[in-house]
Amino acid sequence: MFAYYFKLGLRNLRRNPALTALMVLTLAVGVAASVSTLTILHVMSGDPIPHKSDRLIVPLIDNGQLQGYAPGDKPDDDQISYRDAMNLLASKQGIRRTAIMGTGGAIEPERKDMPSFAATGLAPTRDFFAMFDVPFLYGQAWSEADDRAGADVIVLSRKLAEKLYGDVNPVGRRVRYNGFDFQIVGVIERWNPIPRAHRIIGKGAFDDEDELFVPMASATRHEWFNNGSTTCFDDRGPGYQAWLDSECTWIQFWFELNTVADRPALQHWLDAYAAEQRKLGRLKRNAPNKLYDVMEWLAYQKVVGNDNKLSAWLAFGFLLLCLVNTIGLLLAKFSVRAPEVGVRRALGASRREIFHQFLTETAVVGLAGGVLGLLLAWGALALIALQSKQLSLVARMDWTMLLTTFVMAVAAAMLAGLLPTWRACQVTPALQLKSQ
């Protein structure tokens, strides 16, 4: 019976084409506005590494000055100092640990026809690649020995490798970066998780992929300063070593735990570490030490702001307005079919059957609105993506949102059709037959 009602619904789309087109368009515009906004919110609030996001942990230790501080205030920065980073790396807590600093400088290509150009990336420790499941196209991450020695080795992104060497494996070759020769040990496949939870501070949650990676020990051995956000809490002395020994915060740190159950033990260790540092005259604020997993970290950094949530609510408000208009149009469409309903009722059709028929027809309208709404949503997302590079990363539709578009359109149409369908079922056969 459903197939019969579905065919009737398709046939009735052509009965009053102007009214049908207006209903489909009204529904499609509301769905497109909602879906395009919801899609951006969905991408922005997504989990970039869902299979282990609850086991990747950011520690926060407040090493700020006492001046101007009141208990309960947020830390002045969400990164840690070099001293704390080195101590946490040596702690053996968790199954992996990584410290990350930003780096940037000039690439001097081997090719004489290519001028030098700027490139940015990260200077992490070796565990970074395994911790965040970074995929390799060629080669691999540098070794632990390279990490300890601060060797001049480098991992390139696929985009940078192809720019320098074309579509060949460059592992083993040398590239000059920031005035030093680095040996290429790996090339990663295209990798740019959204949001960029691994290093939000200094670059943002939505930005281009990192172009290169060098060991942090190599960066500090060459006395490179951080390329990114830096906050200093004291007047450090002259020289690079004074910078490393200072309370300046410029390093992002991550632990990877074996299981979520290990988190309380990590918190206990971090509290004990902070207590030891206070005995040495540091961490004078005596602020609570915090741990954040990936999704907690994204929430703490307010990756999805109140403006984004408000936009989504406004879009759904617009969809509700479109539904009200659709209800009015369906009432007009079904009211002129009262004689048809009267004849069917006189021939033995029950109210339930009439209800099923008309509700199926509204579902057909919803399906048509979903197809058009999907096209409009794609167009809206394409226009949004043109506004900035950051928006181009989040204005993209996946299979989840594709399915959501059709479900939302059909559900919205059926919801809007409940009142008109119920009104159609109340037709009295005798009155309609008498009036013919």
From TrEMBL:
Membrane topology: Multi-pass membrane protein
Boundaries of every MacB-like periplasmic core domain copy: 20-267
InterPro entries (alphabetical): ABC3_permease_C (IPR003838), MacB_PCD (IPR025857), Macrolide_Exporter_MacB (IPR050250)
Principal location class: membrane
Keywords: Cell membrane, Membrane, Transmembrane, Transmembrane helix
Subcellular compartments: Cell membrane
Record flagged with keyword Zinc: no
Domain ABC3 transporter permease C-terminal: 314-428
Membrane-crossing residue ranges in chain numbering: 310-332, 362-387, 399-419
PANTHER family (UniProt xref): ABC-TYPE MACROLIDE FAMILY EXPORT SYSTEM PERMEASE COMPONENT 2 (PTHR30572:SF18), MEMBRANE COMPONENT OF TRANSPORTER-RELATED (PTHR30572)
Protein name: ABC transporter permease
Organism annotation: [Empedobacter] haloabium
Lineage: Bacteria, Pseudomonadati, Pseudomonadota, Betaproteobacteria, Burkholderiales
